[in-house]
Design a protein that fits this description.
Elements (H helix, E strand, L loop, with lengths): L1 E4 L2 E4 H36 L8 H19 L4 H14 L5 H4 L6 H19 L1 H13 L3 H15 L6 H19 L10 H21 L5 H14 L5 H27 L7 H14 L4 H18 L1 H4 L3 H14 L5 H5 L2 H22 L2 H10 L7 H14 L7 H18 L4 H14 L11 H5 L6 H29 L4
Helix pairs in contact: 1-2, 2-3, 2-17, 3-17, 5-10, 5-13, 5-15, 5-17, 6-7, 6-12, 7-8, 7-9, 7-11, 8-9, 9-11, 9-21, 10-17, 10-20, 10-21, 11-23, 13-15, 18-20, 19-20, 19-21, 20-21, 21-23
């Protein structure tokens, strides 16, 4: 299209095209600028004067570690790629030998989480996860609050085998609860029954986060926390131990969170008979339970039993998971292509292997001991219990600046844990508390973890309301973990 201005002809399209090109260039610059910022963080630490009592290799490892954590937060590249670059940098700059830099990939706990990702693929591929949810809804979904508890129960059943909140929440729970909203006439673009949809969406999100606290394999960051505790403090924890420690406060939160949300949001609809009929229709369309679903039921029940009885048979949790994965492949529930195409699992393998190893060598090089002594001196005269309360509050609300539970663990778990353990706090208590709080912190923002944007993106609730309710729920979780969780762990002998 052409025109005239002051007697001069001009062409409008190039101008529009130039604007588009300029916009794309700006977009391309954003990852570059974030990447340069990460490098700047690492360089600033590397070039800074090395404190007295710190070995040069420890200080340089800290520089690479800090740059990696910054990369996790700012994400100029996928986190797996960031971790791989960090691993390479450690060798190139002479901080670690090749064998040392790659040692983290032999960690058995990492393979536990990889195998659990494959279980999640089995639940989705066979439809077993959806069937479990619809069966529960068809029988107990007669009211809005009951629907919320049904979704909590469904997620509770599925969570031990789906360490990805995004896979479990986004792939199974969210599509079902969104269908429930549609069935009862609740849509985000309509004011009628909008609070009902907001309640169902947020309570289902809450179910995903709460279940992640209860099971070691409910979230990959839980496994990261246990691996760090083993590398940094020499304390190991099995699947059954984590479950035993978390089940009482976790079940209390499973019951309390939907009820509290019910009071806070106050949905317009109290009775939802349409939900039961919708679930029955979906089950009819799914047809009878397939052989693959039945076999998967046997496999995951067997795996649960073996995990829970680890103290008796002494089979490592990772090898129980690998046994379950092998059984799924032999039974043709999954084929090898399914395993290879599970990108999330292999991504976790890379970044967790690198980060756990870096954290381990930070401890071996003596940096954690130095840091704990330096910071602990600021708390002199304060008992470890009061230190734990103060640091737990800081630890939880620090998530406002984070968008990843794993980045949260990597940034704060080791440092805060070292301070508390040096002060005399029980390692297992600190481990479980900080592991659980990293999940609970996801409530705070609409970007709290990978699955949060999926539920927030349903548009039933604005950002301000989401943050307000999230603050309340996260704070309640903090109180329960401190007030109920710690006494329970003491009662069962964890400290």
């Amino acid at each position: 299209m052409t025109g005239k201005l002051g007697g001069l002809s001009y062409n409008k399209r190039p101008a529009v095209g130039q604007q588009v090109i300029a916009k794309e260039e700006r977009r391309g610059m954003e990852p570059l600028m974030r990447g340069l910022l990460c490098i700047a963080v690492g360089a600033a630490i590397w070039l800074a004067p090395i404190p007295e009592g710190v070995k040069p290799e420890a200080w340089h490892l800290l520089a690479v570690f800090a740059a990696t954590i910054a990369g996790f937060i700012l994400q100029p590249l996928p986190i797996g790629a960031t971790a791989m670059i960090a691993c390479t940098a450690l060798v190139i700059f002479g901080v670690m030998k090749p064998g040392e830099a790659l040692a983290g990939f032999s960690n058995g706990t990492i393979w536990l989480i990889v195998s659990a990702f494959m279980f999640a693929e089995g639940f989705i591929k066979t439809g077993l996860g959806r069937r479990i949810s619809y069966v529960l809804l068809s029988r107990f979904g007669s009211s809005t609050l009951r629907v919320a508890y049904v979704m909590s129960a469904a997620d509770f059943i599925i969570a031990p085998f789906t360490p990805s909140n995004t896979a479990r929440g986004g792939g199974i729970i969210f599509p079902i609860v969104r269908s429930v909203c549609a069935a009862i006439g609740s849509e985000p673009d309509k004011e009628e029954n909008r609070r009902t949809g907001a309640f169902l969406i947020y309570s289902s999100y809450g179910a995903v986060i709460t279940s992640a606290c209860i099971f070691l394999t409910g979230a990959s960051n839980n496994v990261l926390a246990t691996s760090l505790a083993q590398e940094l403090f020499g304390v190991s924890m099995g699947w059954g131990d984590w479950f035993l420690a978390c089940i009482v406060p976790g079940l209390l939160l499973t019951v309390l969170t939907p009820w509290l949300l019910y009071k806070l949001i106050n949905p317009e609809l109290k009775k939802t008979p349409e939900t039961q009929q919708m679930a029955k229709n979906e089950l009819h369309l799914m047809g009878p339970m397939t052989l693959a679903e039945k076999v998967l039921c046997v496999i995951f029940v067997s795996a649960l039993v073996l995990w829970a009885t680890g103290s008796i048979h002494h089979i490592d949790s990772a090898f129980v998971a690998l046994l379950g994965l092998s059984a799924m492949i032999v039974a043709r529930i999954l084929n090898w292509d399914d395993v290879l195409h599970q990108k999330g699992a292999w991504d976790v393998l890379i970044w967790m292997g690198v980060l756990i190893n870096m954290a381990a060598y930070l401890s071996k090089f003596g940096l954690m001991d130095w840091f704990a002594a330096a910071v602990g001196a600021q708390f002199s005269g304060l008992s470890w219990f009061y230190m734990l309360i103060v640091l737990s509050v800081i630890y939880l609300y620090a998530h406002y600046g984070l968008a990843s539970n794993s980045a949260h663990i990597m940034a704060l778990f080791g440092a805060f844990g070292a301070i508390l353990v040096t002060a005399g706090a029980p390692v297992l208590g600190v481990l479980i508390l900080f592991g659980a709080l990293a999940n609970s912190a996801s409530f705070l923002t609409h970007y709290g973890c990978g699955v949060t944007p999926i539920f927030f993106g349903a548009n039933f609730m604005g950002q301000g309301k989401w943050w307000k309710i999230g603050f309340i729920i996260a704070t309640v979780h903090l109180i329960i973990w401190l007030g109920i969780g710690l006494p329970w762990m003491k009662a069962i002998g964890f400290f």
